[in-house]
Write a structure and sequence with these properties.
The protein is an alpha+beta fold and 204 residues long. It has helices at residues 11-16, 97-109, 119-137; strands spanning 3-5, 23-25, 33-35, 38-40, 46-54, 71-78, 83-84, 91-92, 146-152, 155-164, 167-174, 177-184, 193-195. Helix 2 packs antiparallel against helix 3. It starts with a strand and ends in a 9-residue tail after the last strand.
Length: 204
């Protein structure tokens, strides 16, 4: 299983350790850009990370109106074949577009607590919704997904795309990585993605 590493003020350290390119929105987006902590395998290898654009989502529904938030988060997942775990006791599954779709879907859910729900019920809601997100990510050819073509480094790239009451999610592949993205308040249509040239310039 993968774990999170890094603190808010040193998140960039994990990104600098990656052996694959990071993707974000292209230069047409001129707003704030920020980093989350990277995801790593048990041996510390960086496997994925998410780069945010716009407002940083908050689950503090009591003090924040989630519908007023505008953000798009790009998830980059390393292309990995199936391989033995570092301790030789198991096998790690190959990464895929479904991996990116799952991370994007669960990322969206983690910042979209229903404002009307009691605090005690929120974890049950999140567990249920994340299980549903996994099922959807495992069925990208199913009826819940459509297709959307966006430029990635200027090249037209096809993504699997879906919308819900919480926002939108998409997933596809690019050079050196699988890509996912999620957002709310910012339309996915018209976005462009590109390799990040200087990750150290990002907040967080």
């Amino acid at each position: 299983m993968e774990t999170k590493t890094g603190t808010a003020d040193r998140a960039v350290d994990g990104y600098l350790m990656a052996d694959f390119p990071w993707y974000g929105l292209d230069e047409a987006f001129t707003g704030r850009r920020w980093l989350t902590a990277v995801g790593t395998s048990a041996d510390g290898t960086v496997e994925h990370g998410s780069i945010g654009h716009g407002d940083e989502p908050s689950i503090k529904a009591e003090t924040t109106d989630p519908q007023a938030q505008r953000f798009a988060v790009v998830v980059t997942v390393a292309r990995r074949p199936g391989r033995r775990s570092s301790d030789g006791t198991g096998v790690l599954e190959a990464t895929s577009v479904s991996s990116a779709a799952w991370l994007a879907g669960s990322g969206l859910l983690s910042c979209t607590w229903p404002t009307h729900m009691e605090r005690a019920l929120r974890q049950d809601w999140l567990d249920q919704q994340i299980a549903t997100a996994w099922d959807l990510a495992d069925d990208l050819a199913g009826p819940h997904w459509s297709t959307l073509t966006l430029p990635v480094d200027g090249e037209p790239t096809t993504f699997h795309y879906r919308e819900s009451e919480y926002g939108w999610v998409m997933a596809g592949s690019a050079r050196g990585a699988h890509l996912g993205a999620y957002g709310r308040g910012m339309s996915a249509y018209g976005l462009g993605l590109a390799v990040v040239k200087d990750i150290t310039s990002y907040d967080g």
